[in-house]
Amino acid sequence: MPSPVPFGTRLRAAMDSSGPLCVGIDPHPGLLEAWGLPNTAEGVRVFSLTVVEAMTGVAAILKPQVALYERFGSAGFAALEETLQAAKAANLLTLADAKRGDIGSTMAAYATAWLDDSSPLASDAVTLSPYLGYESLRPAIDLAAATGRGVFVLGLTSNPEGASVQHVGGDKSVAKSIIEQVSAENADAEDLGHVGLVVGATIGDAPAKLGIDLSASKAPLLTPGLGAQGATAQDIATAFASSYRQVLGTSSRDILKAGPDVNELRDKARSVRDELLAAK
Ligand SMILES: O=C(O)c1cc(=O)[nH]c(=O)n1[C@@H]1O[C@H](COP(=O)(O)O)[C@@H](O)[C@H]1O
């Protein structure tokens, strides 16, 4: 069997053709209500398929928030499976925002669920939490490499509480150690590696204060916090000055509130994408 095209190569191609935007699919109860949809698995299904239709050619990748499907049990997971298939058919990459992390033997099962060709939930990438130790993520990192998929490891998260764990250690911080391990993982990549990092758009000068060099990581950088959590494209361009080519700006509620009209959703996403492209 020929080796699959690496995730970093596929993501760069999608960013070059559609722009550096990841649209989060977060079907919160309030958004479903605003869209005139019921707060049910069927409402979540219709919501998600509308986002897929609107984002074709505008977003590089879609990020369904697994928690918002999981709350409806098996019917919610069926809606998620259909969303992932629809995105694939529309040539959109998918990043399952599941934030998995466990001891290695369990991690292998999570890796199979989200990253194996045989799984109905297989996505192009999945978010991972490294707080059981970076190496505990090994089964997912390796399966992603073998299948041409990717992982995004939480580095510096967008929420204010994140610093109480991630900044601990000063110039030898927890976040710095995670980010250095990601850098080692991507060392052989020509451009983007298959191990991405989640670094919030709201982090300001934290990387400089903690002595972290994001550009050396070759990691695709997912930057939640844009829009609803208060950060702007210009904040991202300032905080990520030397690594801006790696940035995948991501926004959920701020874009989704433009629905349910497909054209209005698309126009909103296009304007966020164009702000990201214009910010330097
Ligand atoms: O991994 C994530 O995507 C993530 C990490 C992080 O540090 N902060 C963060 O907000 N997220 C997710 O990104 C999305 C942000 O949604 P909005 O605030 O509506 O744009 C949610 O699905 C969060 O779970």
UniProtKB/TrEMBL annotation:
Keyword Ligase in record: no
Keywords per UniProt: Decarboxylase, Lyase, Pyrimidine biosynthesis
Catalytic activity: orotidine 5'-phosphate + H(+) = UMP + CO2
InterPro entries (UniProt xref): Aldolase_TIM, OMPdecase_AS, OMPdecase_type-2, OMPdeCOase_dom, RibuloseP-bd_barrel
One GO-annotated biological process of the protein: 'de novo' pyrimidine nucleobase biosynthetic process
Protein name, entry field: Orotidine 5'-phosphate decarboxylase
A UniProt-annotated Pfam family: OMPdecase
Organism of origin: Glutamicibacter soli
